[in-house]
Amino acid sequence: MPVLDRFRLDGRRAFVTGASRGIGRAIAVALAEAGADVAVAARDKARLTELATEIEALGRRAHVVPLDLGNLEAIEPAIDSAADALGGLDILVNNAGVTYRGGFGINDPAEFDRMFDINLGAVLFGCQAARPHLAAAGGGVIVNIGSIAGTKGTGLYGASKQGVHALTRGFSREYANHGIRVVALAPGQVYTDMGARVRANPDEMNTLLHHTAQGRVADPSEIASAVVYLASPAAGFVTGTTIAIDGGRDFFARR
Amino acid sequence: MTAPDPFRLDGRRALITGASRGIGCAIAEGYAQAGARLALAARTTANLEQAADELREHGAEVHTFGADLTDAQAPTRLVEHAAQALGGLDIVVNNAGDGGHDGLTLDAYRRLLHVNLRAPVLITQAARPHLLGSEAPVVINVSSVSAKLGGAEPYGPLKAALSSYTVGLAREWGKDGIRVVAIAPGVIETDMTASYTDADWWTDNLPERVALARNGRVEEIAGVARFLASDAAAYITGAVIPVDGGWVHQY
What we know:
The complex is a heterodimer. Chain A has a single domain, classed as Rossmann fold, CATH 3.40.50.720. Chain A is of the alpha/beta class. Helix content of chain A is 45%, strand content 15%. The relative contact order of chain A is 0.14. In chain A, strands 3-2-1-4-5-6-7 form a 7-stranded parallel β-sheet, sandwiched between helices. Chain B is of the alpha/beta class. Chain B has one domain: Rossmann fold. A 7-stranded parallel β-sheet of chain B has the order 3-2-1-4-5-6-7, sandwiched between helices. Chains A and B meet through helix 4, helix 5 and helix 6 of A and helix 4, helix 5 and helix 6 of B.
């Protein structure tokens, strides 16, 4: 098979969380461009409906799943119903995530719980809910979106993302005999709504760029491209690992 | 030689959670031997009182506190009571943890999130004003080799989160002179691991998993915890120290 054909996802059925905006939206579109049908989950139904139209215009099927990823009980039914609608599931992208204003502290335990539920809990329960569907399809791929903040220890947000990297390793062992690969990406700063607060702060932004070899932020499509690769047969021997896509984040980056 | 022994903890005020059994109990004993004054916390106070009495018999000052760390209010309350009893705090050991052997359920996830991560964070932040008043403040988090190995259950990922928190907070609090470190124990023989440390599937595979080819003992964690709390470790912060017999595989 010619190499570029091994990156195709024709006929695959994907479920993407946090798909209404930013990285998640770019991932959903990229998967569809590569040939996959896509179930898109997020809270904002209007944005998802608009995204579904875009996916359908690419000649793929789309399935809209209004879902609050902080509601952990709702994840399994949502994945089950999407698998029903698409006739199965081959790819799960656990992308939904929220920032945390508390840094290293907890002022409001409920706010901390909700951040962890979305960033870590939803990934744990998403993997668990998707397993039978991916196994039934003869194998599949789970791509978790972690963060370079996890590796660097950036607040309790980073802690939640380091948890995602660790569960990726754990599930890769657990699910390998079902033919399921589990991988994670650790993006650096990406041009999204979520990163707007950092971009609006010149001091913080300059420091960040100073410690990034490429001296810029990523476009969401640069994360989405990696997801397409990891979800495809081209990445058939990749599992359990976390790949940094951070433009060369490095303390000594800019000389 | 008249210089003070940098490994001693004479007069240091230490709060240790999960101190009634296992690693926490051993750390308490090690600190008491080094001269520290102790505030010990555990969920069930019966075992804790027994452990405390043994330390008191050897002349240690020990205060005990019952605390259910799944409760969001308990950690802050515990710190206030401990600081009051000891007249401040120099050492905080976030040792209490929950292995969660009941699989990936919503109840287990929530309980583990609260005991293994939320409680240490709340305790550490409540302790900050007291640590700022200390000559040699240090926070020691007990993580796990599971942070490195990962897991398809909440325990390993939450220990990874605790390690990440440790590294980041060390950076944040370093300018205040507060050290923040973690110990990542491997398989230590305690009640928490009793379900498998004697099982054939575990002991048969030990030599290929652990370089030293044996399980660890609680004193072997307590020794490192004592070192890390002492002035001998004054330039160590943001480090997660593996104490695991060597999970150093070529595979």
